[in-house]
Amino acid sequence: GPSLVWLRDDLRLGDNPALTAAVERGRPITLLYLLDEVSPGIRPLGGASRWWLHQSLVSLAADAAALGGRLVLRRGAAEAMIGELVEELGAGAVFWNRRYGAAERELDTRIKTSLTDAGVVAHSFAGSLLFEPWTIRTGGGTPYTVFTPFWRACTSGPPPRAPYPAPAELSDADPDLDSDDLPSWELEPSRPDWAGGLREAWTPGESAAQELLADFLDESLPTYGTERDLPAQQVTSRLSPYLRWGQISPHQIWHTTDVARRGLTGAAATSATRFLTEVGWREFAHHVLFHAPDLATVNLRPGFDAFPWPPLDVRALAAWQQGRTGIRLVDAGMRELWRTGTMHNRVRMVTASFLIKNLLIDWRLGEQWFWDTLVDADQASNPFNWQWVAGSGADAAPYFRVFNPELQATKFDPHNEYVRQYVPEWGTDAYPAPIVDLGETRRAALAAYEQVKSAR
Ligand code: FAD
């Protein structure tokens, strides 16, 4: 029977190991995207992610059609739906690339078992990470909790495999197989349509990702190392949402960057290494998620459970979300996020630190807001980085290192270019006064942290 390729966090045709295996099997192929909002433990997508997914499926369907293939859309509980589809299609094999969350892995294991029991070939592949989380272990056999030795262990072995080419053509298994109508999924906002800024900022899809990477390597890589912390410079790759949805693979990034690196010397070569190290942080976040599946809800350091969060100040939370705190860099970042679905990494650190350490609001509430508003909202990277900023996480910033957001602005946005872009009224009477005193709240945060220490 034909092959079913179940696409999930790998919405691409190039360097797709599951698809490559299906092509090698030599039978017609059905490409499937399944929207599963009902299986237990699967985190519901945030609003910006839903918008991204909608655009991505349009783009992927067009890419598949250009090769003679077809993307079939279904919605429902994965376990039942895969079984149904295999029957409808008379499929002889199902292929997919792995996911790393616990609920997803358990689901995939159950499906693999029931397919195998039914005599259907079921294979999973490594498509989304350079290093499968369970293959990287300390000398003592335990998972890594610190980034530098983790990345050293990753990069001291053989280099990641080369990317697979996209298939030259696809033969569709069954043109009559029912497919949902994408608009019926209502992934895109309608009333109110808040996605105008997202449309302006982004073109989701596989070819857009390849163009971004090529432009980044041409134009920005040499200065990435020195300018990546300056939000007004826009030298970073902006590849994170494409990596999140697998519209580009880390293998493609690794190998293209590695080739570019060979032509570089000095600071530019260091920049290339630095860029790949950032891709390594994504690997590390997944390594940590794999070993701590409750990353979005549970402090990695149990001592942090004793942190005395004061009662939630909902007005302060709303001011943070809406970029009305009276702290220029925080407000610029939060407005960039709301408008464009992304925020520069340096500013993510500053806004997160401000929420946790100046507003004394639990990091989980910040994580949830980012989850809903980021186009790159990632099950591993988002909670991992929030715990990193909070000081509750792996290889975390020590809690007592509290960013002063005004000093950060002076240092990383010295001419207020970034601030003015998103907070045009800054410096006028229309701009609000700070909602908290930075020094006072910093002292309160440090005092609260003392309780965590004494609880250990
Ligand atoms: P580049 O500088 O071009 O880096 C290349 C790639 O490396 C990125 O696309 C990303 O995949 C990876 N990367 C870089 N930094 C990190 C990091 N600190 N952790 C993990 N991967 C990294 N990144 C997400 O992809 N999804 C998230 O949900 C997310 N939430 C974050 C929340 C907070 C509080 C903070 C401080 C950071 C978060 N990040 C997240 C990490 C980082 O801010 C973004 O990956 C980065 O800003 C994306 O821009 P870029 O693609 O231009 O990055």
TrEMBL record:
Domain Photolyase/cryptochrome alpha/beta span(s) in chain numbering: 1-130
Cross-referenced Gene3D superfamilies: 1.25.40.80, DNA Cyclobutane Dipyrimidine Photolyase, subunit A, domain 3, HUPs
Cited Pfam families: DNA_photolyase (PF00875), FAD_binding_7 (PF03441)
Tagged with keyword Flavoprotein: yes
GO MF: deoxyribodipyrimidine photo-lyase activity; DNA binding; FAD binding
Database matches in SUPFAM superfamilies: Cryptochrome/photolyase FAD-binding domain, Cryptochrome/photolyase, N-terminal domain
Cofactor(s) the record lists: FAD
Composition skew (Acidic residues), residue ranges: 171-183
Biological processes per GO annotation: nucleobase-containing compound metabolic process; response to light stimulus; response to stress
Note on cofactor: Binds 1 FAD per subunit.
Site (Electron transfer via tryptophanyl radical) residue list: 309, 363, 386
Binding positions (FAD): 224, 236-240, 275, 376-378
Recorded superkingdom: Bacteria
The entry's keywords: Chromophore, FAD, Flavoprotein, Lyase
Residue numbers spanned by region Disordered: 158-190
Keyword Magnesium: no
Similarity comment: family membership: Belongs to the DNA photolyase family.
PANTHER family the record matches: CRYPTOCHROME, CRYPTOCHROME CIRCADIAN CLOCK 5 ISOFORM X1
Protein name as it appears in the record: Deoxyribodipyrimidine photolyase
Lineage: Bacteria, Bacillati, Actinomycetota, Actinomycetes, Micrococcales
